[in-house]
Design brief:
The chain is of the alpha/beta class and 349 residues long. It contains 18 helices and 9 strands. The longest helix is centred in the middle third of the chain and has 16 residues. The protein is globular and about 70 Å long. Bound molecules: S-adenosylmethionine. The site of S-adenosylmethionine has 18 residues, from helix 12 and strand 4.
């Protein structure tokens, strides 16, 4: 039997696959869609097809593309439900594509750029070696550990930081709803990237001073984000290394940081937070929590993302508690939020 005797429906297609063979073929072509979406984001297809649509020649002219390839790309977009065309000549964007518009509230464009960017794409291409060796493939694929590589690749670093902001923007209010900052004057977002989380908290708490500690190259994005959210006068970016030291605070925020690192590295970061906590201070760890095997959900796949890219992993609550204990901290409460992310509140043991 040849491939095409099966129900060969590419991933993301508006057709429905039939049976396990069809579904398996769809899984095999998942990466095609990742790169269609990344390319649509890069070439601002959503912006071009918005309001009246455009012909492939118009898009090609605007983005300096090969016209025939632009047509073929838009035709594929139409087969994925990203565009429509009644005459095969003029294409309009769908609401699905509109999520990538540059000016859409909560735009997913920066996340789409990141999902298919080299920093992710190349290590994922070596997933089998990760599983074989139990080691991250960032060095083999990129030549350096992921955050070192990003520090030397300004364009990719900008994509990464903006993607973190885009992701956090969708979560920050849900987390802020369960975070009690009563009595806190200074909050430090440790590895806070663009700082959307602490800046959202600052908007809600007008007397709160906010700091982002992150690698120095992230500073410009963090300052721009603070300005966009109107909190510049109470915000400071500190370029530094959380393995060395962390600025003093009443509350340290650690969101999606521990999952990037192996246990010993996490303990170093947590110890540095503990050392820098003011009296009555707290550390708030915000992460996905891995549930029992077979539970459907994002966590086991995000765990593979960490495995391919970094030395990190997704963890269960028990695994986190073990890290906290080693760092001289104890879990005071676990606060589920209206998202997949839990807030773990830690105090000195
Ligand atoms: C997965 S991102 C999370 C960003 C942010 N907390 C969020 O949830 O959107 C991890 C962050 O850790 C930062 N980082 C990595 N190594 C660091 C180090 N040694 N010191 C300080 N920040 C670091 C990265 O630059 C990145 O912004």
């Amino acid at each position: 039997m040849t491939l095409f005797e099966h129900d060969f429906v590419a991933a993301g297609s508006t057709e429905r696959p039939v049976g396990d063979t069809g579904r398996m073929l769809q899984m095999m072509t998942g990466y095609w869609v990742t790169q269609v979406v990344r390319t649509a984001a890069e070439l601002r297809i959503a912006d071009h097809l918005h309001a009246g649509g455009a012909t492939p020649a118009e898009v090609a002219e605007a983005e300096s593309l090969d016209p025939d390839s632009a047509f073929r790309f838009l035709r594929a977009c139409a087969s994925l439900g990203l565009a429509t065309s009644t005459d095969g000549k003029r294409f309009a964007g769908t609401p699905l594509l509109d999520t990538l518009r540059t000016d859409a509230p909560g735009s997913l464009r920066n996340l789409a750029l990141w999902g298919g960017a080299e920093s992710h794409w190349l290590p994922w291409g070596r997933l089998a070696d990760t599983v074989r060796t139990g080691t991250t493939q960032a060095e083999a694929a990129l030549g350096a550990p992921i955050f070192d590589w990003l520090a030397a690749a300004p364009k990719e670093a900008e994509i990464f930081t903006r993607a973190m902001t885009a992701m956090t923007r969708g979560l920050a209010h849900k987390l802020a709803d369960v975070i009690d900052l009563e009595g806190a004057r200074v909050a430090v977002d440790v590895g806070g990237a663009g700082g959307n989380l602490v800046q959202t908290l600052m908007q809600r708490h007008p007397r709160l001073t906010g700091v982002v500690l992150d690698l120095p190259h992230v500073g410009a994005e963090a300052d721009a984000s603070a300005a966009a959210l109107g909190v510049t006068d109470r915000f400071t970016f500190v370029g530094g290394d959380f393995f060395e030291q962390v600025p003093p605070a009443d509350v340290h925020l650690l969101k999606f940081v521990l999952h990037d690192w192996d246990d010993d590295s996490c303990v170093r970061i947590l110890r540095n937070c503990r050392k820098a906590l003011g009296p009555g201070g707290r550390v708030l760890v915000m992460e996905l929590l891995v549930d029992k095997v077979g539970t459907p959900g994002l966590e086991p796949l995000m765990d593979l993302n960490m495995m391919a890219l970094s030395t990190g992993r997704e963890r269960s609550l028990d695994e986190f508690e073990n890290l906290f204990e080693r760092a001289g901290l104890k879990l005071a409460s676990t606060l589920p939020s209206a998202s997949r992310v839990s807030v773990l509140e830690l105090v000195p043991a």
